[in-house]
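One-letter codes give the sequence; the fold follows as tokens. An example follows:
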Amino acid sequence: MADFDDFPPSDPEPEDPPVVTPAPVIPIVDIPTAEPPPTPSQHGDGESTTRESPFRDSQSEEETETGQSEVDSSRPPSTRRKTRRKKKRLVNGVDMTPPAELLKKAERRAKKYRNDKKVDECISELVRCTALSRIVYGDGDWRLAEAHTNLAAGYLELRGLAPQAQQHAETSRSILLGGVHTSHSSDTKARILEVLINMHLVLGRALTSQKKFREAEHSLNRASKVCEERLKVPGLNSLEQTDLETRVAIAQGKLYLADKNPSKAARFMEKAEDLIKENHGEDSVQLIPVYQDLGRIEQSKGDDADHDRAVEYFLQAHSITGVSYESGSVEIGRTAYALAMAYSASNIAEGEASAETYLEECLGVYQVAYGPHHPETLRVQDERSRLLVRMGKQEEALEALRSNLRPKMEAFGEYSEEVAESYQLSGTIRLTQGKMEPALKSLKKAHMIQSNLFGAGHKKAKATQQLIDMIVKTPSVAAKEPSTNSKKPHFSAIVGRNTQLGGFKTTLF
């Protein structure tokens, strides 16, 4: 098998947080009347109880579409063809479908694309929903704020674009707090408060991603207070309310975990755990990320961390995954990887052996689901190689690094951080074995890539250069290294010249 030296990389191509004022409470005016609510064209509540956001449960829409398909299947073929032709109302080649109908279709497509994990298509439909909501309901309606909130959630959850999510959430807040929103029913009032909660929730999560912790804390506290206000609405769906409280508690726990406040983070995560158990049971899949976050919170306590307890949390998450998903699913591989990392960091006897077992389980799942050369699979291979080094299995680790080097170059590129890590790990392994010359070659390749990626002054490049200097000074390597002093000319303060300095002839002047 080819050694690391057979793959030389080609030559490279040449705050203080702001003061946040308390947000005003959204004015909601109850209008007791027996008259039916106005139609969407009048910007009223005509669809408040039936229209749902693209990020809510899509079961009712799927049932509606299924029922419609069953009705169509019972019709004669000619009738079905006529029905299909009426999907677009064209007048002189222009689609004259009312915007309200286009909005409903865009919302259904956004839900479908989100469930199918089609990110670009889902974002496009959410943008279309925002534009159509402005046309249908007007600039100051709460349903336009709902569309902006859904678009902010899409940017944050699907693309990880926190600044864009913050911008749309703030637009939603301006709409909600900038006008008076009439409420003809308790259902409408509950929907408006739900939009307000989701807006504060998305805004808090986006600010947390940008490490604006004080602003995020203020926004999430507002979401929690609005949840308490929503409890006073009569005829409230208790399950929806509990789910909102759970999401807010999880966001607060993640905020304090990122802000390195494990005691507060644990308190909110345990609250979320209790709410999920109460409403969804002890084996709900919603408990998987909660248990993993509780394990990370325990690990973040530093010297006071209880690694045994952290392992128990990750083990509970993995057990629920094994019961809830089919064998060989990617979810099982992810929880196995997290459990392996917890075992690797613990002080439990046989912890490294358990970590190796779960890493091999994750590797087997990823190789089937993604393929042997997928970036996720290669990252697991790297963790396994590091674990083998800690367990004293250097030759097995070197073999794994050799077999993964060429796939890594194809997946990440020759001049990538992942390839540099492979060279550096190989060099350190050979250094511990006393093989100075192979170690020097691998470390030089790692240093060249790191210098090109980060610069020679980066801490990674400096650390690698220190290892190289240490190896060069050893007697076995120094004797074989070519001496650079012999190539330099001897210094002389007086240099004989036959012509004047400057190289010009005196006759030119």
In short: The radius of gyration is 32 Å. The first helix runs from residue 59 to 73. Confidence is low (pLDDT under 50) at residues 31-50, 57-73, 78-86, 501-509. Strands lie at 28-30, 90-91, 94-95, 181-183.
